[in-house]
Amino acid sequence: MHKKAHPVRSTMLFGIVAALLFIPGVTLMGKFIAWPLAFRLAVWAMVLGYSYLLASWSNTGLVKIIFPLLILLAAALWSTSSIFFLVLAILVLGWVRQNCFMKGSSVKGLLVETLVSGGAVALILFFNPHSTPSLAISTWLFFLVQALYFVFFSSAAAVKDSASPDRFARACKQAEEILLS
C-alpha cells in the first residue's frame, strides 16, 4: 500500500503541533540554558522537523537537507542575534524546499520563496510578537502561510500520489508508459 501525501493539511497540522510544543519546549529548555539559545534551538527543531516532512513528500534523500540544517544549527549555537538567526532559518527553509521541489529552476524558486516566506514574515511582523505565547501564534501563522506554497506553487509532479484513485486511469497511464518506451 502506498502512502498518500497531503502537504497542505500536513503543513497546517505541523504548524499547530509546533506552536503547541513551542511554549513548553522553550520554557523547559530555558530552565537549563539562556532564553535566546532556547528560542533558537526550538526554531531549529521546527525547521528540522518540517525539512524532514518536505524531504519525505518529495522522495528526496536526507543527504540533501543535512548541510543546510547543520549551518542553521551552528548559527543557533553561536549567533548572538535572534533576528539574524530567524532570517537564516527562513533562507534555510527555502533552500531545503528548493532542493526538494524546484529542481533546476532557481529564478522561479527564488521568486516563489520570496512570495511565500516574505508574506509569512510580513504577516508575523504585522502582529508584532513580543512574548512566548505570541511567538507560538506567530509560528502557527508562519506555517499556515507555508501551506499556501502547496496550494498555489506546487506542480502535480512535486507531490506525487503514488496510487491513482481510479484503477482505469492508473491502467491507462501504465499503458501509455509502455507504448512510449
Structure keywords:
181 residues; 7 helices
What does this molecule look like?
The protein is mainly α. It has one domain. The chain has seven helices and no strands. Helix 1 (7-30) runs antiparallel to helix 6, helix 2 (35-57) runs antiparallel to helix 3 and helix 5 runs antiparallel to helix 6. It starts with 6 loop residues before the first helix and ends with a helix. Mean pLDDT is 84; it is low at 156-164.
Secondary structure topology:
Layout lengths: L6 H24 L4 H23 L5 H16 L3 H20 L4 H22 L4 H21 L14 H14 L1
Q: What's the overall average pLDDT, rounded?
A: 84
Are there runs of 5+ residues with pLDDT below 50, and where?
156-164
Give a count of the beta strands, DSSP E runs of length 2 or more.
0
Profile the largest sheet.
none
Q: How many individual domains?
A: 1
Order of helices and strands: HHHHHHH
Q: Compute the separation of the termini in Å.
A: 26 Å
Quaternary organisation: single chain
